[in-house]
Amino acid sequence: MDASFTIVPYSDTYKDAFRSLNEEWITKYFQIEEMDRVALHHPKEYILDKGGYIAVALINREPVGVCALIPCQYDGYDFELSKMGVSPKAQGKGIGKLLGQHIIDKAKQLGAQRIFLESNRKLAPALSLYKKLGFKEMTKISSPYARSDIQMELTIYTA
Description:
Blueprint: E1 5-9, H1 15-29, H2 34-41, H3 43-46, E2 53-59, E3 62-71, E4 79-86, H4 95-109, E5 114-119, H5 124-132, E6 136-137, E7 150-155
Parallel strand pairs: 4-5
Antiparallel strand pairs: 1-2, 2-3, 3-4, 5-7, 6-7
């Protein structure tokens, strides 16, 4: 990655990018669902105000990737890794891995023990990335997403 790459915390400056980078991949493979609308149109209220975090990957100050850490409603999980999207023009450059690692590091800073995520088996590159980051497939819990057909977890050891 070149020197013009950086990951910054979300601010309102990136509201449109957060929404559009996610809508881009969701509409390519699936349909926008109600939970998507809530998170993507109200990231401050739905994610940040609840103690969550959003990372924005920039190349030459242009947003090319996003990922959120949302406080998790499920017992035994501190956060959900969610809303990860990388622009097609920036894919294949390791940005997703850097974003994922950044989010995991942030979760550690926030004292998280376990992180959860939902995905779809159709998204093979994403699943491969999650496995490289240490996520393991888990048994299904109730999902608000029709497209979710796989769930994964990461146990963070804070020794």
